[in-house]
Amino acid sequence: MIINTKILNVDDYYYGVFMTISAPLTGFTENELQSTGLAEIYYKHILGKIEKATFIEFLNISKNAIESSQTPDQLSAAISTQILSNPSTKKIAQDVITLWYLGTWEGAYVNDLSYKEGLVWNIMQAHPPGAKQPGFKSWSIKPVNSNS
Q1: Is residue 130 part of a domain?
Q2: CA of 81: how far to CAs of 5, 19, 89, in Å?
Q3: With contact defined as beta carbons under 8 Å apart, do 33 and 100 qualify?
Q4: If exposure means fewest CB atoms within 10 Å of the residue's CB, which of 9, 52, 92, 111 is most exposed?
Q5: How many independent structural domains does the chain possess?
Q6: Residue 91: in which H helix or E strand, if any?
Q7: pTM for this one?
């Protein structure tokens, strides 16, 4: 698999690794993650919250998993064996997943946008209460999974 080396205006090679590994960790595409408007913010937030060497170790192991995989199934297996089974990278991977889904790092929201754009709302086919309303007359449309 190929690592995106430059996305938007971020020249940092590891940012590309972060985005490439975030996609299979979350089950969303890199474009979907980028569309949250939080990719660069999350990357910089992590760099400011944990020791840089620890984050770089996680990204190097992720890079090896990505580069050694030819198919999504191989990448999934590599993530399971090389990242999620490794005590030094498991917690960071879990924190990255939580960051994308809930917009929180260690229980605190990164910013207002991180709450609004959490991936959890897409999975639930809902909107974040008090932040991003579904729109005028949306109540007149049956929910997608409605049995009624």
Answers
A1: yes
A2: 24, 20, 11
A3: yes
A4: 9
A5: 1
A6: helix 87-102
A7: 0.84
